[in-house]
Design a protein that fits this description.
This protein is mainly alpha-helical. It has 18 helices and four strands. Strands 1-4 form a two-stranded antiparallel ribbon. Strands 2-3 form a two-stranded antiparallel ribbon. The chain is globular.
C-alpha cells in the first residue's frame, strides 16, 4: 500500500465534463434502476411457491439472495472502481444486471431464478461507485446536492419499486417484472457508456481476491444466519453455526487484511474515528429504513377485523408508501443546504433525529392510511438527510485511492442494518400474536406493531448520539 495519498476534500476542484447535469441524471437514473431490484419480487413473494413449483422456504431465497449478493458486491465493486476506474465498473454492473434480469425473465423454475437474482444483487455495486464518482463529474457548487441525490436513490428505488412491481404483477404476467428490469439495465449501459465521461481515476493496484472471497464467506454466513434465524429457530444448530462461523471467518479476514500490502478494504482507514462512527450510524439508519418498510405495509394490509388493520391491497399499500420515496429525493436540496452550512456531522445527526421522530409519531398514530403515509414521509426525510451526509463524511476522511471502496463499505453497513432490522421486526411480530378465529392463522397484535416503532425510535436515537461523537472536520486536506 502506498504511504502517501491525497484525501478528498469534499468536492472536485473542477468538473471533467462540460455536461455535469446530464452525467448526474444518468447516474441517478441508473442507481434508481438498480435499487428497484430490492423490492421487485415482494408483491409476488407469496405466490412464488406456486409459480416456481417449490416450497415457501426455498422460494424465500429469491428475496434473500439479492440482498446477500448486494451486500458482498458493494465493497468489492468499490475497490475495483478504485483500481481500474469507476466508469468501467459502472458499465459492467449494468451488463450484470441485464444478464441476471434476462435469465429471470426466461425462467420458470427456482434454480435459474436464484442465479438471476444473485446477478441482480451483484449489480447493486453500481450505487456506491456512482456516489463516489459524482464529485469528479460536477463542479463544487453542485457537489453536495449531487451526492445527496444519488445517495437517496438507495431508498427511493425500494419505496417506488413496491407500487410499480405490485401494479405489474397484478395486471400482467409476472415475467414482465424481469423484462422491465432487463430494459432498464440495457438503458443503463447505453447511457453510462455514451454519456458518462471516462475519468482517469485508476490507481494501479491489484484486487485482493482472497480478501474478497473471505469477506463474501463471512458476510454470507452471518447474514444468512440472521435472516433465517426466525424461521429456523435462533437456537438451531444451523443458525448458530452460520452466525458463529461467519464471525470467525470475518475475524480471520480482518487479520489477513491488516497484514496485506494491498487490501480489499483498508481497515486502518475504516477504524479512523470519523469513518468508524459514520459506518456505525449507517447501520442504525439502515435499520430505521427497513423497520418502517416492514411494519407499515403489514399494518396497511392487515384485515380490518383485527380492530387495527386497515384492509389495504398490496397495490394500495404500495401507493400509500410511494410518497415517501419522492420525499427522500425531494429533500436532496435540504440535505445539501445542511451539509454546506453545518457540515456532515450536524446533517447526519439531524437526519437521524427526524427518523426517530417519525417512529415516535408512528407508535401513537397508526389508525388510518394517511397517518402511516405521514410516518413514512417523515422517516424518508430523515433517511434522505442521513444518506446524503454519510458519503460526504466518508469521502472527507479517506484517501482518494480508497474513495469508492470506502463508500462501498459504508453502503455495506447500511445493508447490514437492514438485514438486522428484518430479523428484529420478525422476532417482535411473531412473539406477540393473536388468533382471530378458531383455525385461523396467528397475526401480530397491535402492541407488537407499536413495539416495532419503539425499537425503531431507540435505534435511531442511538444513531443520533453516535453521530454527535464524529469529530468536526479539520482543515487538513491531505495526510502523509
Amino acid at each position: 500500500m502506498q504511504s502517501t495519498s491525497t484525501v478528498v476534500t469534499g468536492a472536485a476542484t473542477d468538473a471533467p465534463t462540460s455536461r455535469p447535469v446530464i452525467a448526474l441524471l444518468v447516474l441517478g437514473f441508473s442507481s434508481l434502476s438498480v435499487s428497484l431490484m430490492q423490492s421487485l419480487v415482494i408483491p409476488i413473494q407469496t405466490e412464488l411457491p406456486h409459480l416456481l413449483s417449490s416450497t415457501a422456504s426455498n422460494t424465500s431465497w429469491v428475496v434473500t439472495a439479492t440482498l446477500l449478493a448486494g451486500a458482498v458486491a458493494m465493497p468489492v465493486a468499490g475497490r475495483l472502481a478504485d483500481i481500474v476506474g469507476k466508469k468501467p465498473v459502472l458499465a459492467t454492473s449494468a451488463v450484470i444486471l441485464a444478464v441476471g434480469s434476462l435469465i429471470c425473465a426466461l425462467s420458470n423454475s427456482l434454480a435459474p431464478i436464484l442465479a438471476g437474482r444473485v446477478l441482480q444483487g451483484l449489480a447493486m455495486g453500481y450505487i456506491p461507485v456512482a456516489i463516489s464518482f459524482v464529485r469528479e463529474l460536477v463542479p463544487p457548487r453542485m457537489a453536495n446536492t449531487a451526492t445527496a441525490s444519488i445517495s437517496a436513490t438507495f431508498g427511493v428505488g425500494s419505496a417506488l419499486g413496491l407500487p410499480l412491481a405490485a401494479w405489474i404483477a397484478q395486471s400482467h404476467d409476472w415475467h414482465d417484472l424481469f423484462w422491465l428490469a432487463t430494459a432498464l439495465a440495457v438503458a443503463m449501459f447505453a447511457l453510462t457508456y455514451s454519456l458518462i465521461p471516462h475519468v482517469h481515476d485508476a490507481h494501479g493496484a491489484r484486487l485482493d481476491v482472497a480478501g474478497a472471497l473471505g469477506l463474501a464467506a463471512g458476510l454470507v454466513g452471518v447474514l444468512v444466519g440472521v435472516t433465517k434465524g426466525n424461521d429456523w429457530g435462533w437456537s438451531a444448530v444451523s443458525t448458530i453455526g452460520l452466525i458463529v462461523g461467519g464471525v470467525v471467518v470475518l475475524l480471520l479476514w480482518g487479520a489477513y487484511e491488516l497484514h496485506h500490502d494491498d487490501p480489499l478494504i483498508d481497515l486502518r482507514t475504516t477504524a479512523k474515528r470519523p469513518v468508524l462512527l459514520t459506518n456505525i450510524a449507517a447501520a442504525l439508519v439502515g435499520f430505521g429504513l427497513m423497520a418502517q418498510s416492514i411494519v407499515v405495509p403489514q399494518l396497511l394490509q392487515m384485515p380490518v377485523s383485527t380492530g387495527y388493520g386497515l384492509g389495504q391491497t398490496m397495490l394500495s399499500a404500495g401507493l400509500w408508501m410511494a410518497p415517501a420515496g419522492v420525499m427522500m429525493l425531494a429533500f436532496a436540496p435540504v440535505s445539501s443546504t445542511l451539509l454546506t452550512r453545518f457540515g456532515g456531522r450536524v446533517a447526519l445527526s439531524t437526519g437521524i433525529v427526524v427518523l426517530a421522530t417519525a417512529y415516535v409519531f408512528g407508535a401513537v398514530f397508526m389508525n388510518s392510511p394517511w397517518q402511516l403515509m405521514l410516518v413514512t414521509c417523515i422517516a424518508a426525510a430523515g433517511v434522505g438527510i442521513g444518506y446524503a451526509a454519510m458519503p460526504t463524511l466518508v469521502l472527507e476522511n479517506v484517501p482518494v485511492s480508497e474513495a469508492a471502496s470506502s463508500v462501498g463499505f459504508n453502503s455495506l453497513m447500511r445493508s447490514t442494518g437492514t438485514v438486522v432490522a428484518g430479523a428484529a421486526m420478525a422476532v417482535i411480530l411473531t412473539s406477540r400474536t393473536s388468533v382471530l378465529a378458531p383455525g385461523a392463522a396467528e397475526v401480530p397484535t397491535v402492541d407488537a406493531f407499536r413495539l416495532c416503532f419503539i425499537v425503531g425510535a431507540c435505534a435511531a436515537a442511538t444513531g443520533a448520539v453516535v453521530a454527535l461523537f464524529i469529530p468536526r472536520r479539520t482543515p487538513t486536506a491531505s495526510r502523509q
